[in-house]
Amino acid sequence: MEENNNQELDMNHLMQVRREKLNNLIAEGKNPFEITKFNRTHTSQEVIEKYDELEGKDVTIAGRIIAKRIMGKASFCHIQDAEGKMQSYVSINDLGEESYKQFKEDDIGDIIGITGFVFKTRTGEISIHAKEVTLLCKSLKPLPEKFHGLKDTDLRYRQRYVDLIVNPEVRDTFKKRSMIIKELRNILDEKGYLEVETPILNNLITGDAARPFETHHNTLDMDMYLRIAPELNLKRLIVGGFEKVYEICKNFRNEGMDIKHNPEFTNIELYSAYEDYNDMMDITEEIITRLCKKVNGTLQINYQGTNIDLETPWKRVTMIDAIKEQTGIDFETIKTDEEAMAIAKEKGVELENGKTTRGHIINEFFETFVEETLIMPTFIMDYPVEVSPLTKRKKDKTELTERFELFIGGREYANAYSELNDPIDQYERLKKQAEARANGDEEAGMMDEDFVNALEIGLPPTGGLGIGLDRIIMLLTNSASIRDVLLFPTMKPLGDR
After folding, report:
1. For the chain, which terminal residue's Cβ has fewer other Cβ atoms within 10 angstroms, N or C?
2. CB 75, CB 69: distance < 8 Å
3. C-alpha angle 382-328-365 in degrees, rounded to nearest 5
4. Structurally, how many domains does the chain consist of?
5. C-alpha span between 396 and 32 (Å, rounded)
Protein backbone atom coordinates (compact mmCIF):
# COMPACT_ATOMS: atom_id res chain seq x y z
CA MET A 1 0.00 0.00 0.00
CA GLU A 2 2.84 2.41 0.93
CA GLU A 3 4.58 1.68 -2.39
CA ASN A 4 1.37 2.50 -4.30
CA ASN A 5 0.98 5.79 -2.39
CA ASN A 6 4.58 6.73 -3.19
CA GLN A 7 4.04 5.92 -6.87
CA GLU A 8 0.91 8.10 -6.90
CA LEU A 9 2.83 10.98 -5.30
CA ASP A 10 5.64 10.60 -7.84
CA MET A 11 3.11 10.58 -10.67
CA ASN A 12 1.39 13.70 -9.36
CA HIS A 13 4.76 15.47 -9.15
CA LEU A 14 5.73 14.48 -12.70
CA MET A 15 2.36 15.64 -14.04
CA GLN A 16 2.78 18.97 -12.20
CA VAL A 17 6.22 19.45 -13.77
CA ARG A 18 4.83 18.77 -17.24
CA ARG A 19 1.98 21.23 -16.71
CA GLU A 20 4.51 23.87 -15.69
CA LYS A 21 6.50 23.19 -18.87
CA LEU A 22 3.33 23.65 -20.93
CA ASN A 23 2.49 26.89 -19.13
CA ASN A 24 5.99 28.19 -19.89
CA LEU A 25 5.59 27.31 -23.56
CA ILE A 26 2.24 29.10 -23.69
CA ALA A 27 3.77 32.17 -22.01
CA GLU A 28 6.51 32.19 -24.66
CA GLY A 29 3.94 31.96 -27.48
CA LYS A 30 4.92 28.37 -28.30
CA ASN A 31 1.72 26.52 -27.40
CA PRO A 32 2.07 23.17 -29.23
CA PHE A 33 -1.69 22.62 -29.17
CA GLU A 34 -2.15 25.53 -31.57
CA ILE A 35 -0.34 23.62 -34.33
CA THR A 36 -2.90 22.22 -36.78
CA LYS A 37 -0.73 20.58 -39.44
CA PHE A 38 2.79 19.22 -39.87
CA ASN A 39 4.17 18.30 -43.25
CA ARG A 40 6.22 15.12 -43.00
CA THR A 41 7.88 13.59 -46.04
CA HIS A 42 8.52 10.04 -44.86
CA THR A 43 7.66 7.45 -42.24
CA SER A 44 10.33 5.65 -40.23
CA GLN A 45 9.91 2.51 -42.33
CA GLU A 46 10.20 4.41 -45.60
CA VAL A 47 13.50 5.92 -44.45
CA ILE A 48 14.84 2.45 -43.60
CA GLU A 49 13.61 0.82 -46.80
CA LYS A 50 14.87 3.65 -49.05
CA TYR A 51 18.11 4.33 -47.21
CA ASP A 52 20.33 3.92 -50.29
CA GLU A 53 18.52 6.68 -52.18
CA LEU A 54 17.92 8.90 -49.12
CA GLU A 55 21.41 8.82 -47.56
CA GLY A 56 22.63 12.39 -47.06
CA LYS A 57 19.28 13.87 -48.12
CA ASP A 58 16.85 15.84 -45.95
CA VAL A 59 13.65 14.19 -44.73
CA THR A 60 10.94 15.17 -42.28
CA ILE A 61 9.47 12.60 -39.92
CA ALA A 62 7.15 12.79 -36.91
CA GLY A 63 6.33 10.62 -33.94
CA ARG A 64 6.33 10.15 -30.19
CA ILE A 65 9.53 10.33 -28.15
CA ILE A 66 10.04 6.89 -26.59
CA ALA A 67 13.70 7.20 -25.56
CA LYS A 68 16.12 10.06 -24.99
CA ARG A 69 19.81 10.33 -24.09
CA ILE A 70 21.10 13.84 -23.21
CA MET A 71 24.89 14.20 -23.49
CA GLY A 72 25.70 17.87 -22.95
CA LYS A 73 25.75 19.64 -26.29
CA ALA A 74 24.59 16.60 -28.28
CA SER A 75 21.83 14.07 -27.69
CA PHE A 76 20.09 11.05 -29.16
CA CYS A 77 16.38 10.28 -29.16
CA HIS A 78 14.11 7.62 -30.60
CA ILE A 79 10.71 8.57 -31.98
CA GLN A 80 7.95 6.09 -32.78
CA ASP A 81 5.39 6.38 -35.55
CA ALA A 82 2.78 3.93 -36.83
CA GLU A 83 5.36 1.85 -38.69
CA GLY A 84 8.25 1.65 -36.24
CA LYS A 85 10.90 3.79 -34.61
CA MET A 86 13.73 6.02 -35.79
CA GLN A 87 16.81 7.35 -34.02
CA SER A 88 17.78 10.99 -34.32
CA TYR A 89 21.00 12.81 -33.46
CA VAL A 90 20.33 16.27 -32.05
CA SER A 91 23.04 18.84 -31.28
CA ILE A 92 23.28 22.44 -30.16
CA ASN A 93 25.45 23.23 -33.20
CA ASP A 94 22.66 22.28 -35.60
CA LEU A 95 19.63 23.58 -33.71
CA GLY A 96 21.04 26.61 -31.98
CA GLU A 97 21.03 27.27 -28.25
CA GLU A 98 17.35 28.14 -27.82
CA SER A 99 15.94 25.24 -29.85
CA TYR A 100 18.36 22.76 -28.28
CA LYS A 101 17.35 23.95 -24.81
CA GLN A 102 13.72 23.35 -25.76
CA PHE A 103 14.54 19.87 -27.04
CA LYS A 104 16.21 19.00 -23.73
CA GLU A 105 12.99 20.07 -21.97
CA ASP A 106 10.86 17.76 -24.14
CA ASP A 107 9.65 14.66 -22.28
CA ILE A 108 9.26 11.00 -23.11
CA GLY A 109 5.78 10.75 -24.63
CA ASP A 110 5.87 14.15 -26.34
CA ILE A 111 5.13 14.14 -30.07
CA ILE A 112 7.73 15.94 -32.19
CA GLY A 113 8.61 16.55 -35.81
CA ILE A 114 12.22 16.28 -36.98
CA THR A 115 13.79 17.58 -40.19
CA GLY A 116 17.33 16.50 -41.04
CA PHE A 117 19.52 14.39 -43.27
CA VAL A 118 19.68 10.58 -43.29
CA PHE A 119 22.88 8.86 -42.14
CA LYS A 120 24.22 5.78 -40.36
CA THR A 121 25.85 5.86 -36.95
CA ARG A 122 29.15 4.12 -36.19
CA THR A 123 27.12 1.11 -35.07
CA GLY A 124 25.30 1.01 -38.41
CA GLU A 125 21.90 2.30 -37.18
CA ILE A 126 19.98 4.34 -39.75
CA SER A 127 19.28 7.73 -38.16
CA ILE A 128 18.28 11.32 -38.81
CA HIS A 129 20.79 14.12 -38.17
CA ALA A 130 18.39 16.77 -36.93
CA LYS A 131 18.44 20.31 -38.30
CA GLU A 132 15.08 21.29 -36.84
CA VAL A 133 12.89 19.88 -34.04
CA THR A 134 9.26 20.95 -33.60
CA LEU A 135 7.17 20.14 -30.53
CA LEU A 136 3.75 19.10 -31.89
CA CYS A 137 2.00 17.83 -28.75
CA LYS A 138 2.91 17.99 -25.07
CA SER A 139 2.26 14.76 -23.17
CA LEU A 140 0.91 15.74 -19.76
CA LYS A 141 1.04 12.23 -18.33
CA PRO A 142 4.20 10.09 -18.32
CA LEU A 143 4.17 6.79 -20.18
CA PRO A 144 4.64 3.65 -18.07
CA GLU A 145 8.08 2.09 -18.14
CA LYS A 146 8.36 -0.72 -20.66
CA PHE A 147 9.13 -3.41 -18.12
CA HIS A 148 7.67 -1.96 -14.97
CA GLY A 149 4.56 -0.10 -16.01
CA LEU A 150 1.70 -1.54 -17.98
CA LYS A 151 1.63 -5.06 -16.53
CA ASP A 152 -1.97 -5.01 -15.31
CA THR A 153 -3.99 -6.57 -18.14
CA ASP A 154 -7.16 -4.86 -16.93
CA LEU A 155 -5.44 -1.48 -17.21
CA ARG A 156 -4.06 -2.40 -20.64
CA TYR A 157 -7.58 -3.08 -21.95
CA ARG A 158 -8.95 0.11 -20.39
CA GLN A 159 -6.13 2.27 -21.70
CA ARG A 160 -5.54 0.59 -25.05
CA TYR A 161 -4.03 3.82 -26.38
CA VAL A 162 -1.17 3.43 -23.89
CA ASP A 163 -0.93 -0.31 -24.52
CA LEU A 164 -0.43 0.35 -28.24
CA ILE A 165 2.33 2.88 -27.55
CA VAL A 166 4.45 0.77 -25.20
CA ASN A 167 3.81 -2.77 -26.50
CA PRO A 168 4.80 -3.30 -30.16
CA GLU A 169 3.47 -6.89 -30.10
CA VAL A 170 -0.01 -5.48 -29.39
CA ARG A 171 0.23 -3.17 -32.41
CA ASP A 172 1.30 -6.18 -34.47
CA THR A 173 -1.76 -8.18 -33.36
CA PHE A 174 -4.13 -5.47 -34.56
CA LYS A 175 -2.26 -5.01 -37.82
CA LYS A 176 -2.75 -8.75 -38.37
CA ARG A 177 -6.44 -8.39 -37.51
CA SER A 178 -6.82 -5.81 -40.24
CA MET A 179 -4.84 -8.01 -42.65
CA ILE A 180 -7.10 -11.02 -41.89
CA ILE A 181 -10.32 -9.09 -42.53
CA LYS A 182 -8.93 -7.62 -45.76
CA GLU A 183 -7.85 -11.06 -47.01
CA LEU A 184 -11.24 -12.52 -46.06
CA ARG A 185 -12.94 -9.94 -48.26
CA ASN A 186 -10.51 -10.76 -51.07
CA ILE A 187 -11.34 -14.47 -50.88
CA LEU A 188 -15.10 -13.97 -50.98
CA ASP A 189 -14.98 -11.26 -53.62
CA GLU A 190 -12.91 -13.62 -55.81
CA LYS A 191 -15.65 -16.22 -55.45
CA GLY A 192 -18.39 -13.86 -56.56
CA TYR A 193 -19.95 -13.11 -53.18
CA LEU A 194 -21.67 -9.75 -52.70
CA GLU A 195 -20.94 -7.89 -49.47
CA VAL A 196 -24.14 -6.55 -47.91
CA GLU A 197 -25.32 -4.78 -44.76
CA THR A 198 -28.34 -5.76 -42.71
CA PRO A 199 -29.95 -4.00 -39.70
CA ILE A 200 -28.38 -4.10 -36.25
CA LEU A 201 -31.64 -2.97 -34.66
CA ASN A 202 -34.39 -5.56 -35.03
CA ASN A 203 -37.96 -5.84 -33.79
CA LEU A 204 -37.65 -9.63 -33.31
CA ILE A 205 -35.14 -11.98 -31.68
CA THR A 206 -34.13 -14.36 -34.45
CA GLY A 207 -31.22 -16.21 -36.00
CA ASP A 208 -29.73 -18.01 -33.00
CA ALA A 209 -30.35 -19.06 -29.41
CA ALA A 210 -29.08 -16.23 -27.23
CA ARG A 211 -30.17 -13.48 -24.84
CA PRO A 212 -30.43 -10.14 -26.63
CA PHE A 213 -29.79 -6.58 -25.57
CA GLU A 214 -33.11 -4.76 -25.43
CA THR A 215 -33.90 -1.12 -26.15
CA HIS A 216 -36.96 0.99 -26.93
CA HIS A 217 -37.73 3.06 -30.01
CA ASN A 218 -39.53 6.15 -28.72
CA THR A 219 -41.05 7.37 -31.99
CA LEU A 220 -42.49 3.97 -32.88
CA ASP A 221 -43.16 3.16 -29.20
CA MET A 222 -41.87 -0.37 -29.58
CA ASP A 223 -39.21 -2.58 -28.03
CA MET A 224 -36.25 -3.44 -30.25
CA TYR A 225 -33.26 -5.72 -29.94
CA LEU A 226 -29.62 -5.53 -30.95
CA ARG A 227 -28.86 -8.19 -33.55
CA ILE A 228 -27.73 -11.58 -32.25
CA ALA A 229 -27.22 -12.87 -35.81
CA PRO A 230 -27.95 -11.57 -39.35
CA GLU A 231 -29.03 -15.01 -40.62
CA LEU A 232 -32.68 -14.51 -41.51
CA ASN A 233 -32.10 -11.21 -43.27
CA LEU A 234 -29.26 -12.68 -45.34
CA LYS A 235 -31.49 -15.58 -46.38
CA ARG A 236 -34.20 -13.08 -47.37
CA LEU A 237 -31.63 -11.70 -49.83
CA ILE A 238 -31.11 -15.17 -51.32
CA VAL A 239 -34.89 -15.37 -51.77
CA GLY A 240 -34.67 -11.98 -53.50
CA GLY A 241 -32.25 -13.33 -56.11
CA PHE A 242 -28.77 -12.53 -54.78
CA GLU A 243 -27.19 -15.97 -55.04
CA LYS A 244 -24.03 -15.33 -53.00
CA VAL A 245 -23.95 -12.85 -50.11
CA TYR A 246 -21.82 -12.18 -47.05
CA GLU A 247 -21.70 -9.77 -44.16
CA ILE A 248 -18.84 -9.02 -41.79
CA CYS A 249 -20.97 -7.94 -38.90
CA LYS A 250 -21.12 -6.92 -35.28
CA ASN A 251 -23.41 -9.12 -33.20
CA PHE A 252 -24.50 -8.59 -29.61
CA ARG A 253 -25.37 -11.10 -26.90
CA ASN A 254 -26.36 -10.19 -23.35
CA GLU A 255 -24.57 -13.14 -21.79
CA GLY A 256 -21.51 -14.08 -19.74
CA MET A 257 -17.99 -12.80 -20.37
CA ASP A 258 -14.84 -14.88 -20.39
CA ILE A 259 -11.69 -15.41 -22.48
CA LYS A 260 -13.86 -16.59 -25.40
CA HIS A 261 -16.86 -14.27 -25.09
CA ASN A 262 -17.46 -10.53 -25.33
CA PRO A 263 -20.99 -9.08 -25.48
CA GLU A 264 -20.08 -7.34 -28.76
CA PHE A 265 -18.23 -9.50 -31.27
CA THR A 266 -17.49 -9.82 -34.98
CA ASN A 267 -18.75 -12.60 -37.24
CA ILE A 268 -18.66 -13.37 -40.90
CA GLU A 269 -21.81 -14.96 -42.29
CA LEU A 270 -22.13 -16.07 -45.90
CA TYR A 271 -24.83 -17.80 -47.94
CA SER A 272 -24.61 -19.47 -51.33
CA ALA A 273 -27.57 -20.70 -53.38
CA TYR A 274 -27.48 -24.22 -54.81
CA GLU A 275 -24.86 -25.42 -52.33
CA ASP A 276 -25.01 -27.49 -49.12
CA TYR A 277 -23.07 -28.01 -45.91
CA ASN A 278 -20.43 -30.09 -47.68
CA ASP A 279 -19.61 -27.07 -49.86
CA MET A 280 -19.47 -24.96 -46.72
CA MET A 281 -16.86 -27.33 -45.26
CA ASP A 282 -14.74 -26.85 -48.37
CA ILE A 283 -14.89 -23.06 -48.24
CA THR A 284 -14.24 -23.06 -44.47
CA GLU A 285 -11.01 -25.00 -45.05
CA GLU A 286 -9.99 -22.60 -47.80
CA ILE A 287 -10.79 -19.45 -45.83
CA ILE A 288 -8.93 -20.42 -42.66
CA THR A 289 -5.88 -21.89 -44.39
CA ARG A 290 -5.52 -18.85 -46.67
CA LEU A 291 -5.86 -16.49 -43.70
CA CYS A 292 -3.26 -18.47 -41.77
CA LYS A 293 -0.78 -18.44 -44.66
CA LYS A 294 -1.35 -14.71 -45.12
CA VAL A 295 -0.42 -13.76 -41.55
CA ASN A 296 1.92 -16.60 -40.54
CA GLY A 297 3.36 -17.95 -43.77
CA THR A 298 2.73 -21.54 -42.64
CA LEU A 299 -0.09 -23.90 -41.66
CA GLN A 300 1.82 -25.22 -38.66
CA ILE A 301 1.00 -22.99 -35.72
CA ASN A 302 1.34 -23.03 -31.94
CA TYR A 303 -1.62 -21.84 -29.93
CA GLN A 304 -0.93 -21.29 -26.23
CA GLY A 305 1.59 -24.13 -26.10
CA THR A 306 -0.32 -26.58 -28.33
CA ASN A 307 0.99 -27.41 -31.80
CA ILE A 308 -1.78 -27.42 -34.41
CA ASP A 309 -1.49 -28.55 -38.02
CA LEU A 310 -3.97 -26.81 -40.34
CA GLU A 311 -3.03 -28.81 -43.44
CA THR A 312 -6.11 -30.02 -45.28
CA PRO A 313 -8.20 -32.12 -45.60
CA TRP A 314 -9.59 -31.82 -42.08
CA LYS A 315 -11.30 -34.68 -40.28
CA ARG A 316 -15.06 -34.98 -40.82
CA VAL A 317 -17.06 -37.06 -38.34
CA THR A 318 -20.70 -37.19 -37.23
CA MET A 319 -21.61 -36.10 -33.72
CA ILE A 320 -22.87 -39.59 -32.86
CA ASP A 321 -19.67 -41.25 -34.12
CA ALA A 322 -17.51 -38.72 -32.26
CA ILE A 323 -19.34 -39.53 -29.00
CA LYS A 324 -18.89 -43.24 -29.68
CA GLU A 325 -15.15 -42.77 -30.35
CA GLN A 326 -14.67 -40.91 -27.09
CA THR A 327 -17.08 -42.71 -24.71
CA GLY A 328 -18.01 -46.03 -26.31
CA ILE A 329 -21.70 -45.04 -26.14
CA ASP A 330 -23.54 -45.53 -29.43
CA PHE A 331 -26.63 -43.35 -29.70
CA GLU A 332 -27.59 -45.23 -32.87
CA THR A 333 -28.75 -47.99 -30.50
CA ILE A 334 -30.47 -45.57 -28.12
CA LYS A 335 -33.79 -44.83 -29.81
CA THR A 336 -36.05 -43.22 -27.22
CA ASP A 337 -35.97 -40.19 -24.94
CA GLU A 338 -36.35 -42.49 -21.93
CA GLU A 339 -33.29 -44.57 -22.90
CA ALA A 340 -31.27 -41.41 -23.48
CA MET A 341 -32.27 -39.97 -20.10
CA ALA A 342 -31.27 -43.23 -18.40
CA ILE A 343 -27.78 -43.21 -19.94
CA ALA A 344 -27.38 -39.52 -19.09
CA LYS A 345 -28.21 -40.25 -15.45
CA GLU A 346 -25.81 -43.19 -15.46
CA LYS A 347 -22.94 -41.01 -16.78
CA GLY A 348 -23.74 -38.02 -14.53
CA VAL A 349 -24.68 -35.71 -17.40
CA GLU A 350 -26.78 -32.80 -16.12
CA LEU A 351 -29.77 -31.78 -18.23
CA GLU A 352 -31.53 -28.41 -18.31
CA ASN A 353 -35.27 -28.20 -17.78
CA GLY A 354 -37.10 -28.74 -21.03
CA LYS A 355 -34.01 -30.17 -22.75
CA THR A 356 -34.50 -33.86 -22.05
CA THR A 357 -35.14 -35.28 -25.51
CA ARG A 358 -32.75 -37.75 -27.14
CA GLY A 359 -31.48 -34.98 -29.41
CA HIS A 360 -30.75 -32.60 -26.55
CA ILE A 361 -28.97 -35.39 -24.66
CA ILE A 362 -26.79 -36.29 -27.67
CA ASN A 363 -25.72 -32.65 -27.88
CA GLU A 364 -25.04 -32.53 -24.13
CA PHE A 365 -22.91 -35.70 -24.32
CA PHE A 366 -20.87 -34.14 -27.11
CA GLU A 367 -20.28 -30.91 -25.18
CA THR A 368 -19.41 -32.80 -21.99
CA PHE A 369 -17.14 -35.57 -23.28
CA VAL A 370 -15.93 -34.69 -26.77
CA GLU A 371 -15.62 -30.97 -27.51
CA GLU A 372 -12.43 -30.27 -25.53
CA THR A 373 -10.66 -33.31 -27.02
CA LEU A 374 -10.85 -31.97 -30.60
CA ILE A 375 -7.39 -30.41 -30.94
CA MET A 376 -6.69 -30.85 -34.65
CA PRO A 377 -9.22 -29.25 -37.03
CA THR A 378 -12.37 -31.37 -37.01
CA PHE A 379 -15.79 -30.92 -38.59
CA ILE A 380 -18.52 -32.33 -36.34
CA MET A 381 -21.51 -33.12 -38.57
CA ASP A 382 -25.17 -34.02 -38.35
CA TYR A 383 -26.53 -32.27 -35.27
CA PRO A 384 -29.90 -33.21 -33.70
CA VAL A 385 -32.84 -31.25 -35.04
CA GLU A 386 -33.69 -29.98 -31.53
CA VAL A 387 -30.57 -27.80 -31.48
CA SER A 388 -30.72 -26.82 -35.16
CA PRO A 389 -34.03 -25.01 -35.76
CA LEU A 390 -32.96 -23.42 -39.07
CA THR A 391 -31.29 -26.46 -40.66
CA LYS A 392 -32.46 -28.92 -43.29
CA ARG A 393 -33.10 -32.45 -42.03
CA LYS A 394 -31.09 -35.40 -43.33
CA LYS A 395 -33.07 -37.46 -45.82
CA ASP A 396 -32.23 -40.82 -44.26
CA LYS A 397 -32.28 -39.70 -40.61
CA THR A 398 -34.88 -37.03 -40.14
CA GLU A 399 -34.09 -36.59 -36.43
CA LEU A 400 -30.70 -35.21 -37.52
CA THR A 401 -29.76 -32.19 -39.65
CA GLU A 402 -27.19 -31.25 -42.27
CA ARG A 403 -25.22 -29.05 -39.93
CA PHE A 404 -21.58 -28.93 -38.91
CA GLU A 405 -19.41 -27.04 -36.47
CA LEU A 406 -15.64 -26.69 -36.77
CA PHE A 407 -13.47 -27.35 -33.73
CA ILE A 408 -9.78 -26.51 -33.33
CA GLY A 409 -7.89 -26.70 -30.06
CA GLY A 410 -11.06 -27.76 -28.25
CA ARG A 411 -13.01 -24.64 -29.32
CA GLU A 412 -15.74 -23.99 -31.85
CA TYR A 413 -14.82 -21.67 -34.73
CA ALA A 414 -17.51 -22.11 -37.38
CA ASN A 415 -21.13 -23.20 -37.73
CA ALA A 416 -22.84 -24.10 -41.01
CA TYR A 417 -26.06 -25.55 -42.41
CA SER A 418 -27.76 -26.86 -45.43
CA GLU A 419 -30.38 -24.19 -44.88
CA LEU A 420 -33.95 -25.19 -44.14
CA ASN A 421 -36.11 -23.94 -47.02
CA ASP A 422 -39.34 -25.82 -46.31
CA PRO A 423 -41.74 -23.12 -45.03
CA ILE A 424 -44.09 -25.64 -43.39
CA ASP A 425 -41.30 -27.32 -41.41
CA GLN A 426 -39.75 -23.93 -40.61
CA TYR A 427 -43.05 -22.59 -39.27
CA GLU A 428 -43.42 -25.54 -36.91
CA ARG A 429 -39.87 -25.19 -35.59
CA LEU A 430 -40.22 -21.44 -35.05
CA LYS A 431 -43.53 -22.11 -33.32
CA LYS A 432 -41.78 -24.49 -30.90
CA GLN A 433 -39.10 -21.84 -30.25
CA ALA A 434 -41.76 -19.24 -29.53
CA GLU A 435 -43.50 -21.63 -27.13
CA ALA A 436 -40.22 -22.31 -25.35
CA ARG A 437 -39.68 -18.57 -24.98
CA ALA A 438 -43.19 -18.13 -23.59
CA ASN A 439 -42.36 -20.85 -21.06
CA GLY A 440 -39.32 -18.97 -19.76
CA ASP A 441 -36.45 -19.89 -22.13
CA GLU A 442 -34.80 -16.46 -22.57
CA GLU A 443 -32.48 -17.76 -25.31
CA ALA A 444 -35.27 -19.07 -27.53
CA GLY A 445 -36.14 -17.11 -30.64
CA MET A 446 -39.44 -15.50 -31.64
CA MET A 447 -41.87 -16.36 -34.39
CA ASP A 448 -40.89 -14.49 -37.57
CA GLU A 449 -43.96 -14.56 -39.81
CA ASP A 450 -42.29 -12.50 -42.51
CA PHE A 451 -39.41 -14.96 -42.77
CA VAL A 452 -41.86 -17.81 -43.22
CA ASN A 453 -43.54 -15.70 -45.89
CA ALA A 454 -40.16 -15.30 -47.63
CA LEU A 455 -39.71 -19.08 -47.61
CA GLU A 456 -43.18 -19.44 -49.12
CA ILE A 457 -42.01 -17.19 -51.96
CA GLY A 458 -39.16 -19.68 -52.35
CA LEU A 459 -35.60 -20.11 -51.03
CA PRO A 460 -33.45 -22.24 -53.33
CA PRO A 461 -31.28 -24.98 -51.80
CA THR A 462 -28.70 -22.93 -49.90
CA GLY A 463 -25.56 -23.44 -47.86
CA GLY A 464 -24.85 -21.03 -45.02
CA LEU A 465 -21.74 -20.50 -42.90
CA GLY A 466 -20.87 -18.41 -39.86
CA ILE A 467 -17.32 -17.98 -38.57
CA GLY A 468 -16.37 -16.26 -35.32
CA LEU A 469 -13.78 -13.79 -36.59
CA ASP A 470 -12.52 -12.76 -33.16
CA ARG A 471 -11.78 -16.39 -32.30
CA ILE A 472 -10.02 -17.00 -35.63
CA ILE A 473 -7.88 -13.92 -35.01
CA MET A 474 -7.09 -15.22 -31.51
CA LEU A 475 -5.96 -18.52 -33.02
CA LEU A 476 -3.84 -16.99 -35.79
CA THR A 477 -2.16 -14.43 -33.49
CA ASN A 478 -1.68 -16.80 -30.52
CA SER A 479 -3.81 -14.54 -28.29
CA ALA A 480 -5.02 -16.05 -25.01
CA SER A 481 -8.15 -13.93 -24.58
CA ILE A 482 -10.73 -12.39 -26.89
CA ARG A 483 -9.92 -9.07 -25.19
CA ASP A 484 -6.42 -9.29 -26.70
CA VAL A 485 -7.87 -9.00 -30.22
CA LEU A 486 -10.52 -6.33 -29.52
CA LEU A 487 -9.22 -2.78 -29.51
CA PHE A 488 -11.82 -1.73 -26.94
CA PRO A 489 -13.29 -4.76 -25.14
CA THR A 490 -16.35 -4.31 -22.97
CA MET A 491 -15.30 -3.31 -19.43
CA LYS A 492 -17.13 -2.33 -16.30
CA PRO A 493 -16.44 1.35 -15.53
CA LEU A 494 -14.17 2.04 -12.60
CA GLY A 495 -16.14 5.13 -11.61
CA ASP A 496 -16.04 8.82 -12.33
CA ARG A 497 -12.75 10.42 -13.20
Report:
1. C
2. yes
3. 50
4. 2
5. 74
